């Protein structure tokens, strides 16, 4: 079993600091080619029409917005909290529409979008269940009735089975060291990221994500009037199970 901490060590608003220009280097392998494949898979799960207004929630540097454009979708909006990631998104895909916002309070009228997509575990960031459930209610609010959603989330069982307490890798001139823990209550995956010698300095950041089971996700989605139609274990389309690397949930707003 992985080592545990007595309390989560990440600050409550860790996401305010971490999604920056250094983050883009640490996760450089999460690139446009990967996004192209994930959008191709999403299109197999959801019948997205070219005329749809599509929201990419927590769009980061815009790689999935760019992939949607390549796939023939033009009415794309990206929302993210991070200035550095949005700056890169605008520079690389100016034809999409980007806005800075907190996912708990989206800057759109109700029923603004035909589809909402969220990739790379952009859910479960907040400390309380109420805040995390509120994200789903906001997602439902901005969807039209019958609108489609896809939520790419982690699989808690897989995380618990495969968690590496410590890893270290070299990337260019700097070293990335990561420590991972399951909180004592078993409810969160905690990560400390130390980047040594980036720009001649050392940097320290954190991640903390709530580990919701499939049953919990179903219950929260239902509370937001979002009807779950399917769950996949990866973007290769495999059925979801305890050993699946991802929990990809998709369906419609009732």
Summarize the structure.
This protein has 254 residues and is of the alpha/beta class. It has eight helices and twelve strands.
Keywords summarizing the entry:
globular, alpha/beta, 254 residues, 2 domains
Please tell me about this protein's structure.
The chain is of the alpha/beta class and 254 residues long. Residues 1-6 have low confidence and may be disordered. Helix 3 (32-45) crosses helix 4. The protein is built from 8 helices and 12 strands. It has helices spanning 15-18, 21-26, 32-45, 63-70, 83-92, 129-142, 156-162, 214-223; strands at 4-5, 54-57, 76-80, 97-100, 113-118, 143-154, 166-171, 174-183, 188-198, 201-210, 226-232, 246-253. The protein is globular, with a radius of gyration of 18 Å.
SSE topology:
Blueprint: E1 4-5, H1 15-18, H2 21-26, H3 32-45, E2 54-57, H4 63-70, E3 76-80, H5 83-92, E4 97-100, E5 113-118, H6 129-142, E6 143-154, H7 156-162, E7 166-171, E8 174-183, E9 188-198, E10 201-210, H8 214-223, E11 226-232, E12 246-253
Parallel strand pairs: 1-8, 2-3, 2-5, 3-4, 5-6
Antiparallel strand pairs: 6-12, 7-8, 8-9, 9-10, 11-12
């Amino acid at each position: 079993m992985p080592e545990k901490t007595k309390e989560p060590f990440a600050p409550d608003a860790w996401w305010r600091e971490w999604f920056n220009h250094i983050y883009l280097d640490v996760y450089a392998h999460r690139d446009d080619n990967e996004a192209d494949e994930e959008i191709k898979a999403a299109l197999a799960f959801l019948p997205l029409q070219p005329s749809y207004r599509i929201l990419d929630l927590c769009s980061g540097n815009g790689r999935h917005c760019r992939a949607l454009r390549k796939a023939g979708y033009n009415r794309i909006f990206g929302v993210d909290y991070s200035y550095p990631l949005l700056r890169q998104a605008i520079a690389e895909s100016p034809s999409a529409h980007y806005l800075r916002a907190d996912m708990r309070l989206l800057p759109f009228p109700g029923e603004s979008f035909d589809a909402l997509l969220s990739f790379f575990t952009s859910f479960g960031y907040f400390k309380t269940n109420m805040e995390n459930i509120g994200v789903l209610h906001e997602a439902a609010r901005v969807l039209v009735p019958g609108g489609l959603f896809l939520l790419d989330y982690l699989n808690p069982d897989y995380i618990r089975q495969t968690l590496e307490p410590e890893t270290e890798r070299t990337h260019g001139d700097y070293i990335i060291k990561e420590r991972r823990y399951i909180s004592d209550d078993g409810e969160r995956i905690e990560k400390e990221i130390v980047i040594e010698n980036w720009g001649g300095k050392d940097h320290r950041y954190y991640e903390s994500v709530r580990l919701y089971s499939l049953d919990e996700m179903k219950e929260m989605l239902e509370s937001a009037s979002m009807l779950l139609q399917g769950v996949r274990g990866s973007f290769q389309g495999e059925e979801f199970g305890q050993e699946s690397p991802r929990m990809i949930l998709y369906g419609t707003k009732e």
